[in-house]
Design a protein that fits this description.
This protein is mostly helical and 127 residues long. It has helices at 2-21, 39-53, 60-81, 84-120. Helix 1 packs parallel to helix 4 (84-120) and helix 3 runs antiparallel to helix 4 (84-120). The chain has four helices and no strands.
Length: 127
Amino acid sequence: MRVQKTSTIMAIACTGLVLSGCANTASGYRPIVDGYEDEVYHADLADCQALAKTKRYDNGDTKTSALAGAVVGGAAGAIEDNSIEGAIVGALLGGLIGGASGAADTRTDRKDIVIRCMGGRGHAVVG
């Protein structure tokens, strides 16, 4: 049981580090454009990156993913370990996995916001 608790703590710590490392990524995405990177490009890029930052990582979708993961993980932990401790560990791990999944979706959304914004401002975005 002691090994399981230690593994759980390590998993929680690692997930927290990964999520904190991704906190400001994607909104700073620089798309590849077919054209010149002049003053207008740089001004538009800064505006689009700022717009992407308005999509927060702690949004409703991420919270829903974390909650769903916690419910499923808690149920699985309770069934597997047949104890309240198993349910708690399962809920924690499931919540972290669900939250990480929601954060990854937000990262993709932020990148897409920059791409669409730049395209909407007349830049030929190719990647």
